[in-house]
Design a protein that fits this description.
55% strand
Length: 195
């Protein structure tokens, strides 16, 4: 596992520090299953189970409020994160999607679909600085409906139906905690022509 981040060096300059986590370990299982349900139904399931652990790593970053570095004198602030979990690596996650094709009398098709996702709590950084630096376990859902006739199609969708606030990153290098999130509930329409 390689970690890079903007840092302030002890000589007053700034730059990018690149460190290797000696002996990082990832074990787990990932599987995907797709099946037809009767003639017109389709079910797909993806599952992942992970166990991760960083090897020896002393990491610094200007994006986080870290203590003065006493281990690595090249950089001003750092934290020994040896043994921490890898960021964005949930112990368990799954995605389930079902769609069904309805054949209309005029030769068109109507295909509703639902996608549900669950993910365990994850750390958002190698530092794992508490609840602000984590995304709690969450479940979310997306809906879609596709109408197709001849080679034309129209696809309506609602993503993040429950309007969940799902963090993708967080940092506190400027004082207060700030976070970035996945898009909120999004409604839209796509259309196209297959040739």
């Amino acid at each position: 596992f390689q970690f890079n981040s903007p840092v302030s060096f002890s000589d007053g300059s700034r730059g990018l520090a690149i460190e290797n986590a000696d002996g990082a370990k990832v074990t787990g299982l990932e599987t995907e299953i797709a099946a037809r349900i009767a003639k017109d139904g389709r079910l797909s399931i993806a599952l992942a189970v992970l166990d991760t652990k960083l090897g020896h790593l002393v990491a610094g970053s200007n994006d986080y409020a870290l203590p003065p570095c006493t281990v690595d004198t090249r950089i001003e602030t750092c934290l020994d994160v040896t043994g921490h979990k890898l960021p964005h690596a949930p112990k368990f996650s799954t995605t389930v999607q079902y769609q069904h094709t309805f054949r209309l009398a005029d030769g068109a098709t109507l295909v509703p679909r639902i996608t549900a996702r669950y993910e365990d709590e994850v750390s958002l950084s190698v530092f794992d600085l508490g609840p602000e630096d984590r995304q709690k376990a969450y479940a979310s859902a997306d809906l879609g409906l596709r109408y197709a006739k001849d080679k034309w199609w129209v696809d309506a969708f609602v993503r993040n139906v429950g309007d969940k606030k799902i963090k993708t990153s967080a940092f506190n290098g400027f004082g207060p905690w700030l976070a970035q999130y996945k898009p909120p509930r999004t409604v839209g329409v796509n259309t196209g022509f297959d040739f």
